[in-house]
Amino acid sequence: MNTFSRGPFPATRMRRVRRHDWSRRLVAENQLTANDLIWPVFVFDGIGRQPITSLPGVDRLGTDQIESMAQTACDLGIPAIALFPATESALKTEDAIEAINPDNLVCRTVRKIKASVGDSLGVICDVALDPYSSHGQDGLVHDGYVINDQTVTVLTQQAIVQAEAGCDIIAPSDMMDGRVKAIRIALDAAGYTNVQIMSYAAKYASSFYGPFRDAVGSSGNLGTASKNTYQQDPAQGNEALHEVALDLAEGADTVMVKPGMPYLDIVSRVKTTFGVPTFAYQVSGEYAMLSAAAERGWLDREKVVLESLLGFKRAGADGVLTYFAAEVAQWIRDSH
Ligand code: PBG
């Protein structure tokens, strides 16, 4: 590494290039722009906005808020949003059948966005059953176990109704085996050859998802049950590469690592190993953690958020799903 060095101090002074702002900008290896951001958005079937206690500053959006949200994303230069429905509990069932209703909340929201901003904004839809299941699991449950292959069949149908509604990127977050392949085949057979798949390839069984489950109303249903039989064990590193390799072989266009900050080693290894578009999800618990400390005045909100996102870029992420997306895009805009 240092064979070209003129030798140690005093010949080398690392602080020289750090002295002035122009110089620090000049040598900067990474830069965060609005193009790096994906904005996760919660929607509900009603009017107005609903605050989410464990995600201060993030609201569920009613149907009347959708167009202005989409316009805001476009104005800020955010390339894509990821939609998550807070389904009414009356519509949640054991078999999560609402997931494949072509007129469910998410499909109606996609249509509304596409009718208002068209292709100016990419729309990502999650494929998993937890927003629709009465038990809060991502798949069908039989004898207390989430059954893989039968779940995959439902997931392919869910992907199709979302593609029909105009979704640009199908994002399976369920961690069933073989679902990427099944979804790709189903999309192609239905003529949606240009609909992308962004797989939640390395998704861990994390305790950082708590506030998200409050947001979509699945935490009460899930209770003390875990998702450990399908999401990855946080002890595993190499296994994430195996997951990514399989999802790519099955047809994923882009891959995601989730959660974000505690898993930057995985982001870096995935990017280095495969060189494919790699995304990271700064999940709800990470948002809550940073927000709570900032609210108490213990951390500077803007500074720590920007630093955390630059960390994703440095690790090799091509983009980050973050609940801070709109705020960050505004900061970036204001700083120019
Ligand atoms: C659904 C899903 C989850 C998240 C994204 N999609 C929750 C889970 O797996 O329990 C979490 C996102 C977040 O915490 O911000 N399968």
UniProtKB/TrEMBL annotation:
Pfam families tied to this protein: ALAD
Molecular function as annotated in GO: porphobilinogen synthase activity; zinc ion binding
Record pathway: Porphyrin-containing compound metabolism; protoporphyrin-IX biosynthesis; coproporphyrinogen-III from 5-aminolevulinate: step 1/4
Top EC class, one word: lyase
Source superkingdom: Bacteria
Active site (UniProt): K203 (schiff-base intermediate with substrate), K258 (schiff-base intermediate with substrate)
Signal peptide: none
Positions that bind Mg(2+): E243
Keyword annotations from UniProtKB, A to Z: Heme biosynthesis, Lyase, Magnesium, Metal-binding, Porphyrin biosynthesis
SUPFAM superfamilies, sorted: Aldolase
Biological-process GO terms, alphabetical: protoporphyrinogen IX biosynthetic process
GO cellular component: cytosol
Family assignment from sequence similarity: Belongs to the ALAD family.
Descriptive protein name: Delta-aminolevulinic acid dehydratase
The organism of origin for this protein: Novipirellula herctigrandis
Gene of this entry: hemB
